[in-house]
Amino acid sequence: MNCSRFLAGVTGLAALGCGETVPKDAFLTLDTHGKKPLNVVLFYLDDSGFADFSFNGAVGYTTPNVDFMAAHGLRFTNYYAAQPISGASRSALVTGCYSNRVGLTGAPMTGSEYGLADEEETIGEIMQANGYSTALIGKWHIGDAERFLPPHHGFDEWFGLPYSNDMWPNHPTMEFPRLPLYDGLEVKEYIDTDAQMDQLTTRYTERAVEYITRNAKAGKPFFLYFAHAMPHVPLGVSEKFRGMSQAGLYGDVMMELDWSIGSVRQTLEDLGIADNTLVIITSDNGPWRNYGNHAGSTGGFREGKSTTFNGGLRVPCIFYMPGHIRAGICNDLISNIDFLPTLASLTGATQPKLKIDGIDFIPYLTGKDKEAPRKYLCLYFQRNSLEAVTDGRFKLVFPHYYQSYEMYEPGKDGAPGRIGYRIIESPEMYDLRQDPGERCNVIGMFPEKETELLRVADEIRADLGDDLTGIEGTGRRKPGKK
Questions:
Q1: What is the spatial distance between Cα 418 and Cα 412, in angstroms, rounded to a whole number?
Q2: What is the CATH T-level fold of the domain 377-481, as seen in this structure?
Q3: pLDDT digit string (tens) for 60-75?
Q4: Average confidence (pLDDT) over 319-343
Q5: φ/ψ (deg, to 5) at 457
Q6: Spatial separation of the C-alpha atoms in residues 376 and 180, rounded to whole Å
């Protein structure tokens, strides 16, 4: 197995208990007599790259709180967001599905006609059904019509933005309406100024601490989906961190995000619930590299956001729960679509009724299954284009157009640079173990692996279709329409 032994005796996950003998080499052991339910805090940063934390090589600033959690938790080094763009990534996260299965792709603009269909079960809804308090603090971006907003899709509380923070009147190249900050289904105020944007991270953090404290004191298990606006442009940072880094405004923003995550961790410690609260830290996709010094780092991965190369999809992922997760690194393939079934299993919630694409990792963590359950991940983009398939080591890339950040000088200080377009004219394959930057095409060198990945591609095309080959597929569901 590739993973270090990382989970030991979780007290209080009684919902999982079956009275079975747990193997000695299990990643996760369960005390079926415990009484504490498991809380979950899921941090979802926006456009944060693989190397944006100092434990992964950030330069010019440090992120001590996240570094501490990485050192004392489990780091998934082969983690992929299911889509390289905000809305699609978030719909995949909350439904446990490839986003094209639920009919949602791209990054919905303001006034979108589409959103989550009523019959789709979100991670919030399955937690609610299991007696959890649920909250989203931060960005939604899965439809901004009222029927598509978080309170109608599994979240008891919502404090945040309906879409990306750049969809406001101050955008450098496009026109947008005023940016609403919601509290529940009511618009609390409009974010009109840089000064207001500067306070978002602090305000979100204060609300998160208040939510956690309130539910902990009430003895209510909770699921907090904390979707920060940053470090998506336009960057905003409070005065307490402005000028603190040696990496300009982007470094300042990352330091404040680190403070935010550390504030939540300290709150869990102070309340005595850190040992039964799983904290997950990850990002929706890779950095928007044409913003130059206002964009993050891929750490050498190819391209960035809006591409299915590693720079667009491979981002940090940390699981942290002191006393139960040992320090370790897992190189096995995992995706954000796996969070829903894994957390449902971990908390005793019922899995969704409709077909999902995520895989429950609990049997693997408990030692019941000896091999990692995710064998492949299919990498879709655009409306419904299957651009690549990976088994975690090898990646087969199909012919397609893609946007490139490597053709032109990036922008500076919040202004975007020009984006070019390139084409993959014939299939390419990369050995990600030796070439994570995807620069050396090894097509033809591993024919058995090519055949295997082509078979996987044919299977998913029959199910979900593929615009690149003109296959419709039979398994896609329609989105909601306002």
A1: 11
A2: Arylsulfatase, C-terminal domain (3.30.1120)
A3: 999 999 999 999 988 9
A4: 89
A5: -60, -45
A6: 39
